[in-house]
Amino acid sequence: MINLIKTTIGQLRILAFLEGLSFIALLAIGMPLKYGYGMPGPNRIIGMLHGLLFVGYVFLVIQAKIEYRWNARKTILALLASVIPFGTFWAEMKLFKE
After folding, report:
1. What angle do CA 80, 87, 43 make, to 5 degrees?
2. Are 85 and 23 in contact (CB under 8 A)?
3. Residue 6: CB partners within 8 Å, gap ≥ 6?
4. 44-86: per-residue pLDDT in tens?
5. What is the 3-state secondary structure (H, E, C) of the chain?
6. Which residues are CB-neighbours of 13 under 8 A, at least 6 positions away?
7. Where are the domains of the chain?
């Protein structure tokens, strides 16, 4: 686990997983509570967390593109994965293998 954190790709894999979890939490918990039950509080918290993780994910994708000399296709797929539910889980398994 320690070696995974030391590399950009390892950090990206961890962040991709966390960003994917936060996206699912936002869609499955935050949005229903806000729009179904009029409880915007949890949505604000989950939304803020997801936003921070999303920005970190995009930053690390760009850093990995430069460091590992990814081609445009791989970079675009990695970025698209962040806006599709379960996309970052796919990216972590298929795109970010060391």
Report:
1. 95
2. yes
3. none
4. 999 999 999 999 999 999 999 999 999 999 999 999 999 998 9
5. CHHHHHCHHHHHHHHHHHHHHHHHHHHHHHHHHHHHHCCHHHHHHHHHHHHHHHHHHHHHHHHHHHHHCCCHHHHHHHHHHCCCCCHHHHHHHHCCCC
6. 4, 92, 96
7. 9-93
- Condensed to tens digits (0 to 9), the pLDDT of residues 27-52 reads 999 999 999 999 999 999 999 999 99
**Number of neighbouring beta carbons within 10 Å of residue 80:** 11
pTM above 0.85, yes or no: yes
Identify whether the C-beta of residue 20 lies closer than 8 Å to the C-beta of residue 89: yes
